[in-house]
């Protein structure tokens, strides 16, 4: 059971940092336990792995985050552990420009942007979340992983699964996509992405603009899906989600008090945060200054992922 420890900066919020990687409370690949520990089941370049992350304080060393890993991908996972926990997140580059953002930044100063270094792991569930409610997307993810995911290595909690390989995703029959509530266009986008998975995984090692462009070469993957993927893969502070139903309204209300909003207006409002627009958005959504929902009451991914 190889392990690695990392001393986080102060302040540091482990749960807020990792929660964006969990696709609902019942995610078979990512789980938070009542004791505050986290379990992740992933398919790394070296093979499947299980990672358990614990948070404790030491009288001498201070606060320590410890990762313990199992499986062929264990060494890869532990090498990536600090990045996953947000060690490479350059928080000092962020400067609040609005009162509501400054208040959220003070309150949630422990938030870091996690970097998984894995593209397909985030791309598939992001495609599942296109144009539907969060609850429906999370159901599809759970059902498909329970049917086609692999048993993880190590002493994992019951019900956890390694996400399917690209070969396995391509073998999912059409009726199972349908039973999971996934329409033909989303299923086709996932299958096309699986065909180019090695090239897409290279996006984990390039800069955000080039990575965004590479993902969008796949039909069915647009700016929304590419940003949602790279927010997690790269921990990219400027990967702003465009094309979202609710986000421009939420940003506009938080920063101006006005209702309604478009992507163009949102881009204008977030212009002072160029290079840090995704981080600013996360903080705005954490601020609680959001409009009451009248017409659209279904929970949406921008709220659930916080």
Automatic annotation (TrEMBL):
Keyword line: DNA damage, DNA repair
GO biological-process terms attached to the record: base-excision repair, AP site formation; DNA alkylation repair
GO terms for cellular component: cytoplasm; protein-DNA complex
Key word DNA damage present: yes
InterPro entries registered for this protein in UniProt: Alkylbase_DNA_Glycosylase/TA, DNA_glycosylase
UniProt GO MF annotations: alkylated DNA binding; DNA-3-methyladenine glycosylase activity; DNA-7-methylguanine glycosylase activity
PANTHER family named among the record's database cross-references: DNA GLYCOSYLASE, DNA-3-METHYLADENINE GLYCOSYLASE
Name this polypeptide is given: DNA-3-methyladenine glycosylase 2 family protein
Gene source species: Streptomyces arboris
């Amino acid at each position: 059971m190889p392990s690695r420890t990392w001393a986080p900066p102060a302040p540091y919020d482990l749960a807020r940092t990792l929660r964006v990687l969990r696709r609902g409370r019942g995610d078979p690949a990512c789980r938070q336990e009542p004791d505050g520990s986290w379990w992740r089941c992933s398919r790394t370049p070296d093979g499947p792995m299980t990672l358990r992350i614990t948070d404790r304080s030491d009288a001498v060393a201070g606060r320590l985050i410890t990762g313990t890993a199992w499986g062929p991908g264990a060494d890869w996972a532990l090498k990536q552990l600090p990045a996953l926990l947000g060690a490479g997140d350059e928080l000092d580059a962020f400067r609040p420009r609005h009162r509501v953002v400054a208040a959220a930044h003070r309150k949630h100063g422990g938030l870091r942007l996690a970097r998984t270094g894995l593209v397909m792991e985030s791309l598939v569930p992001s495609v599942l979340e296109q144009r539907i409610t969060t609850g429906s997307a999370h159901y599809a993810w759970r059902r498909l992983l329970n049917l086609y995911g692999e048993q993880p290595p190590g002493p994992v909690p019951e019900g956890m699964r390694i996400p399917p390989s690209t070969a396995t995703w391509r073998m999912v029959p059409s009726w199972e996509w349908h039973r999971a509530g996934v329409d033909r266009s989303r299923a086709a986008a996932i299958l096309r992405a699986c065909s180019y998975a090695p090239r897409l995984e290279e996006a984990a090692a390039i800069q955000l603009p080039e990575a965004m462009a590479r993902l969008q070469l796949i039909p069915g993957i647009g700016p929304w899906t590419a940003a949602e993927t790279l927010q997690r893969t790269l921990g990219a502070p400027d990967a702003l989600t465009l094309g979202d139903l609710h986000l421009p309204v939420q940003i506009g209300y938080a920063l101006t008090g006005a209702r309604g909003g478009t992507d163009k207006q949102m881009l204008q409002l977030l212009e002072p945060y160029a290079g840090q627009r995704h981080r600013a958005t996360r903080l705005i959504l954490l601020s609680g200054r959001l409009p009451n929902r009248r017409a659209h009451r279904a929970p949406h991914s921008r709220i659930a992922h916080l």
